[in-house]
Structures are given as structure tokens and as C-alpha cells.
Design brief:
By secondary structure, the chain is of the alpha/beta class. It has six helices and six strands, in the order H-E-H-E-E-H-E-H-E-H-E-H. The protein has a single domain, classed as Creatine Amidinohydrolase, Chain A, domain 1 (3-Layer(aba) Sandwich), CATH 3.40.350. The chain is about 25% helix and about 15% strand. The chain has a six-stranded mixed beta sheet, with helices on both faces. The radius of gyration is 20 Å and the shape is globular. The relative contact order is 0.17.
């Protein structure tokens, strides 16, 4: 029999105080719910320590997941790879949610009143994810609203600094298109890249 193994450097005991502080900030911002994904603005699988907002809030350190915080509940959505891990790492104030079996919109609707507002950091979500969620919540009269900054970052006082990303100058002797040495190349139409929404 195979057992899931993982390192657990997170401290679940910090979760309740951080969640309470986040909820107080949500009230100040007029938000009834907030989305906290494990993501950065590049939408890659690996994120820098300064972007580990989900781990900071919940204690969950898996490589995929997100949290939906309302006034009464905070669900941590994870897929089958992390269902043992999430229960070991989060405090009882957080609720593990099996994803994708449970859709985010289906989880939010019964927990929010009509006219409620769900906040999200627009830098951390793909456009198609937000549009998909917006359509799913329209039926319940729930609206999405981008936040002017990241609420977690306001609370994370010892947040690590962003990693330096030095620029790499390209020598002018390199052509923009290597094939251009042999003559002009007919332009090809751009195809929009599609990706499956997180929720």
C-alpha cells in the first residue's frame, strides 16, 4: 500500500489569528468573500516564497489549491493528491474541500446572500477563470470585484522580498527570427492559448 508523504514546515496554530485579521480587513473593504489562490502573476506551478499566500494563511503547503474565505467559513480546495496533507496542515477553523468534485461557485452560493461581493486579486487569476466564475455566480446575484491590492500582503508583515529578476540583454547581431536569414517568412495568425479554469 502506498502512503502520501510530505514535509510540513507550516504552523497551523497561526491560522486562526490570521484568518480573523483577514476577515476584519474584508469587512473594511466591503467584501463578503475573498479568493486566496496558490498562484503568482505568472500562473506557473512554482511560486516564490513571497507569493506563498495560501500557505501563510492556512498552513497548507501543497503545490496546488486555493482558499475561499467567507464570514462564516473558510474552505481550502485541494485535489486528490493533497487530501491527507491538507488535513494534517490546517487548523480546525479551515474546512478541507474536495476539488474538483465540489465546484467553487456551488460552494459559495449557499454561503452568500444575493448581492454579495467576492473579492479577488486580479494579478493572481487568469481572465478565463474569473469570467467562468462570474457566469456561474450570476444566477445567485453574487458579483466579483477586483481588489486594489492584495489583502494578504497587508497582513503579512514579515513577507520575504521578491526574488531578483535580472534582465538579459540580447546582442543586436541576433536576428529576431533566425529564419529571416534565408528570406522573408509569411506571418502566421496568432492562436489564443486556452487553459482549463482552476474552478
Amino acid at each position: 500500500m502506498m502512503f502520501q508523504s510530505f514535509d510540513s514546515p507550516a504552523d497551523p496554530s497561526a491560522g486562526p489569528a490570521r484568518l480573523a485579521a483577514l476577515r476584519a480587513l474584508m469587512v473594511q473593504e466591503g467584501l463578503d468573500a475573498l479568493l486566496v489562490p496558490r498562484a503568482d502573476r505568472f500562473q506557473g506551478e512554482y511560486v516564490a516564497p513571497c507569493d506563498e499566500r495560501l500557505a501563510w494563511l492556512t498552513g497548507f503547503t501543497g503545490s496546488a489549491g486555493f482558499c475561499a474565505v467567507t464570514a462564516g467559513e473558510a474552505g481550502v480546495f485541494v485535489d486528490g493528491r493533497y487530501r491527507v496533507q491538507v488535513r494534517a496542515q490546517i487548523a480546525p477553523v479551515f474546512t478541507p474541500v474536495d476539488w474538483p468534485e465540489t465546484k467553487l461557485a456551488d460552494w459559495l452560493r449557499p454561503r452568500l446572500d444575493r448581492g454579495a461581493t467576492v473579492g479577488f486579486d486580479p494579478w493572481l487569476h487568469a481572465v478565463e477563470e474569473i469570467e467562468s466564475l462570474r457566469k456561474a455566480l450570476d444566477h445567485g446575484g453574487i458579483r466579483l470585484r477586483p481588489t486594489p491590492d492584495n489583502l494578504i500582503d497587508r497582513l503579512w508583515t514579515d513577507r520575504p522580498p521578491p526574488l531578483p529578476r535580472p534582465s538579459c540583454p540580447i546582442p543586436t547581431r541576433w536576428p529576431a527570427n533566425p529564419r529571416s536569414r534565408s528570406g522573408p517568412v509569411s506571418p502566421q495568425p496568432c492562436r489564443r492559448r486556452t487553459r482549463r479554469p482552476r474552478w
